């Protein structure tokens, strides 16, 4: 049986189930700290340490030397630090997992080599039982390193059941349950084994967007990076925010990561000296965080369809089982369409929210910190409309801290299917800089209209607009409502209204 906390299960029944697999890079460590602060938003089924092409423990018997291996102790040290924060976090939101529960569901998987999936490990057996249990709800397998431990678990299932009469039934049940969210292909096990043997598992494969909340952030326009800078990080995340946030790694902060290469010790004075483009306490990376940003129920409804977009970015369908970074949003700062802007457009909101939760770590009373407002749309979230129809929507916001609220409405035109203008040809190019595949982009074409629907009252709680007369039956129009408080960090909540033309 998989270890579970029955009390927590009842509370989190409606929240997404997820297991994290991680290879222990510095950005994984940072992502895990943020994940702990948001662990009340999901049902944490497990944390499994795995390897990748970038980090592995080595195997003396096989003659494999360790490479950039950061060990296993850091994971338990972070849970210890989370335990110190736990009592305060519970005063601000229900549903945070008990520290002892996290210890019970933390396992060591296949860590000896990049892509190693032959050994049956504690972690792979844990995942196998998780994949086979009777809970039919979707299980999101966050893949922050390689897929090898996940692959080993699936192979163990295949080896046990493929000769049995009920194999196809078991295979379908597992495939229907799993959603594997892959941050880059960090070993060969997905392509070599999972894709070939388990083709019906749903995959969200982030090949490029993640770089932009990772080591590539300095390439952005300054406007999207304001809350990744050292001064902001030190003031709102690092300084005086308890042991858990002390562990959060920033440039030149003095943190030393055991096992990491000297040239990758970004907390050192030497690194700052050799990389003058960074200031002390600048953001390093959280390239794996988009995989759980996707799971946060903030009203953007991204879990309903990866093509809708949200804090984890926006994805296009390669087929009915596979989504990748093949869609573009219009970057207002560069005046072009970019796949990475589907993630970058949310940075300020993401960071403000993180800062508020960092305050929860040290605020022993509810009144000492800020909390997100909530938002409802009077007319509902899924509406059928006529061509040429005048539509009015009413937003109703409430705030638990009784802060003042402001409203904003905008059309997420890149995510809907009504075409404002058809421009041909649309030349999409691969953007590669610094040795990284940054994603796809295209320049704005001459005469191209980015948004032709005017929203009246877009800065009030009531918005009005007209459905275009040239809309086709079945076209969708996505309208985003935002409510923002005026408390510390100015927190938001959203609602996405999807209007479908009759």
Q: Helicity range of the residues?
A: 25-40%
CATH superfamily of the largest domain: Ribonucleoside hydrolase-like
CATH-defined topology of the largest domain: Inosine-uridine Nucleoside N-ribohydrolase, Chain A
Instruction: Determine the structural class based on helices, strands and strand pairing.
Output: alpha/beta
Distance between the termini: 49 Å
* Share of residues in strands: 15-25%
Number of helices: 14
CATH class of the largest domain, anyone?
A: Alpha Beta
Average of per-residue pLDDT values:
95
Overall number of strands = 19
* Gyration radius from CA atoms, angstroms: 23 Å
Query: What is the number of domains?
Result: 2
Main beta sheet, described? 8 strands, mixed
User: What topology, given as strand order, has the largest sheet?
Assistant: 3-2-1-4-5-6-8-7
Shape: globular
Assign the CATH architecture of the largest domain: Alpha-Beta Complex
Low-confidence stretches: 1-11
Output the keywords:
502 residues, alpha/beta, Inosine-uridine Nucleoside N-ribohydrolase, Chain A, Immunoglobulin-like, 8-stranded mixed sheet, 4-stranded antiparallel sheet, 14 helices, 19 strands, 26% helix, globular, disordered N terminus
